[in-house]
């Protein structure tokens, strides 16, 4: 088997699946992450011009389905109809998952395909009938070995993920000679180091294959499990759920004019680590026995943990309800934050606090603010019409070069399954555009006709940079990427993820629109979204106090000849209590109905804060974005015009009452302590 990148160069087709979901209960946050991950990969490849087919579905047979239906007082078919259409497919549509085919294992087409493959493998002599006794995990719906069991806190050994301990069963079933293909699979894995990624999961499979894997039981007596696909040669048995479910990846292509065997060799399968063995051992050997080529790549992701780092669970009270999450937050914010925070190779914490923090900092302050200020300046200085760029400076040439290189960098990271790094590369470009605007100071350029051409160039560069950013982020935030372009006057226009610059025609009318990513606390008519735990703890400690000016008062010279002034002196211990920090202004806006106040969003290391400051008379909001200031970080928060101000910015005042923000000689990183 050749390397993934080499295969991609040989064929424009790209086939990707996510694990089909077991329809015995509502989806959880792990399902959501997997589908968003698979969707983002599919979208990246579509944007790169590849012919993508993305397959999803629901797994609807087996013993657990029968038991869940009986408990709910409905038939198995009624249970899976509801869960498949409402709970799963309904949620995926809300999350803008762009699947091309959705397969249900109860579909007649799928049943016929499964029976055909079973018959082929049976006729080849790879399926036989025998009696077996062993430990059976109902949760995993398969026989397990004692080595696979893990002791729980109660001292009982269980298969991971199954709440019940395995039970000893003895019954006659049909078996697949899986061990016949063990050496072939081992050799294939050794020859293809990128077949299973991340590499740690490949190592797990190599360890599995270092010992005998034995045959695989592939049927259940119909008298015990009636809910399944009958074996074509024995109607008294139904097929084992994995021999049914895994074949759904190829079902869409039966009778479509595309050979399932060809598609099989193109597949990227995206799965969770808890079903590694079925996809890394069962599925390859099944494909080999059926005469189908092995998939191209198996992408394995880890689990999503609660925000406190613990495993999620209803009993712990820390589980996330995906539907409630979609009801409470913008879909693209959920997509972005999950993909940005989660890592394939390690379990990743996630929760509303993390979501709100990323929403406010990355999406609202970095991307949303860039769009708002760009559109605002085009309206203010050019009557809402995008001007043509003129002679570029070295800075514009740098931005253009970065824009041309960025799509290739992103696609390379996606091919290496570094999705969070691909997102960060795009966001770094966005942050650089914010710095560029702060450096260029278009509000100053607008003051003179002599700098009109320079202003045109800055405005065009910012708008075109936003277009590039929208394309680079479209796989992650598809709805907001389209909305961003619509605000730039590019409604309905699509672009390939390829190096290009200057695609917005000069003279385009820029309509603008609502805030791209409203911060949760800014949404009227809704309760505030859950904040990060630190913020919650801080708010509990805050006492209401009257409005105070949030600009440092001028420091008067200290005289030593009067007792009153001497008493104003402070000790070194008093000074040590003041926590002064370098902070970077990442967003700024005027406070409504307040002539003196500006609302600043500042970044202090990894923390983002809101500060209200009475400096509106001396500073335009746009001029402050990107500026470093000194913040009194441990000042008790106060509310000004209903906005909580979390600190005070230092400023000096001359004899005429003019203010000047205390600045820095060095470009120190935000969060640096001032001594």
Automatic annotation (TrEMBL):
Coiled coil: none
UniProt-annotated location(s): Cytoplasm
Reactions the enzyme catalyzes: tRNA(Met) + L-methionine + ATP = L-methionyl-tRNA(Met) + AMP + diphosphate
UniProt keywords, alphabetically: Aminoacyl-tRNA synthetase, ATP-binding, Cytoplasm, Ligase, Nucleotide-binding, Protein biosynthesis, RNA-binding, tRNA-binding
Family annotation (InterPro entries): Anticodon_Met, Met-tRNA-synth_bsu_C, Met-tRNA_synth_2, Methionyl/Leucyl_tRNA_Synth, MetRS_core, NA-bd_OB-fold, Rossmann-like_a/b/a_fold, tRNA-bd_dom
GO molecular function: methionine-tRNA ligase activity
Principal location: cytoplasm
NCBIfam families, per the entry: metG_C_term, PRK12267.1
Subunit details: Homodimer.
Family: Belongs to the class-I aminoacyl-tRNA synthetase family. MetG type 2B subfamily.
Name under which the protein is recorded: Methionine--tRNA ligase
Protein's organism: Deinococcus arenicola
Gene: metG
